[in-house]
Write a structure and sequence with these properties.
This protein has 298 residues and is of the alpha/beta class. It is 50% helix and 13% strand. Helix 2 packs across helix 6, helix 3 crosses helix 4 and helix 10 runs parallel beside helix 11.
């Protein structure tokens, strides 16, 4: 899903810089350096991964933590800008998913921060890319590996701890990938309101039958053409589809009609999201999605 923030990015960035300076000037004295690596992530998905790898040796700030916030249309504030100005390492999804992050980072004037970009690490070509790579477990492994390496450079005394945390995290990813493949949908049809969990659905063996113009309209927050909507509704009712996956953070009239049609057809429905539910860690979040998709075949 690709949405752009409203307003002039340069004006927003300059305004945030001025506000950040004011906030900094109002602090109650010099900030104490506790020796931890300061990490800022665009969303809590990457923030949680960073915290898992870094443990107590990192201080993580995630700019988007509210499940009701849409990363595509998020606009940062002066406190976000201030956090980025002090970061040792920053993590973004990239691929047009969290463009606000680049705007804020540019305005923060922090050229020394290490930048970890998940899309660039994925190795996927950006043209035609499904940018939701946080549902692609091989990409998440690459992000975790890069974080462990960069943390080790920033804090050599903690390198063994970072490597140990990475090994444990990677082993959990291996288990999740095995469970993905064990779903073995064998090409069964799936419809997705948006390709948010597309990598996971594909890894489980489903074939995405969603009419491209339907997903494109939902991602662009525009009305679905009536003929395309009817085509998608007919597909859900046709018996060719075994699963409907929808993003519960961006529902609308077309999505509601699709959910109603799935309910009438007795079609299993799985809700996914782009940020973590409150109190849930990344590995548990993915595990729950895999369980839900596997249950849809039973």
């Amino acid at each position: 899903m690709r949405r752009t923030a409203i307003g002039n990015p340069l004006l927003v960035a300059s305004t945030l810089v001025a506000s950040a300076v004011l906030l900094s000037g109002c602090s109650a004295g010099p900030e104490q350096d506790d020796g931890r690596i300061r990490v800022v992530a665009s969303t809590d998905v990457y923030g949680d991964i960073a915290g898992t790898i870094g443990g107590d040796l990192v201080d993580v700030t995630s700019l988007i933590t509210d499940p009701d916030q849409d990363p595509h249309s998020f606009e940062g504030d002066a406190r976000n800008q201030l956090a980025l100005s002090k970061a040792d390492l920053v993590i973004e999804n990239g691929g047009g998913y969290d463009d606000f992050f680049d705007t804020l980072l540019s305005g923060a004037g922090n050229d020394d921060a290490v930048v970890v970009n998940a899309v660039k690490l994925s190795g996927y070509p950006e043209e035609g890319l499904n940018e939701h790579v946080f549902y692609d477990l091989p990409t998440v492994r690459k992000v975790a590996e890069r974080l462990a390496a960069e943390f080790g450079e920033l804090s050599p005394d903690g390198a063994k701890e970072f490597d140990a945390n990475l090994a444990e995290f990677a082993a959990s990813l291996d288990g999740l990938q095995e469970r993905e493949h064990a779903v073995a949908a064998d090409g069964a049809g799936a419809v997705m309101t948006e390709p948010v969990a597309g990598y996971l659905v594909e890894a489980a063996g489903f074939t995405d039958l969603t009419p491209p113009k339907f997903s494109q309209a939902i991602e662009a927050e525009s009305d679905v053409p009536p003929l395309v909507l009817q085509q998608t509704l007919d597909l859900v009712r046709s018996g060719q589809v075994r699963l409907l996956v929808y993003n519960d953070q961006t529902t609308g009239p077309a999505t509601e009609q699709l959910l109603a049609a799935a309910k009438d057809a007795g079609l299993p429905v799985v809700a996914v999201s782009e940020t973590l539910p409150a109190g849930i860690h990344y590995l548990d979040w993915i595990s729950t999605s895999i369980d839900a998709i596997a249950a849809a075949l039973r």
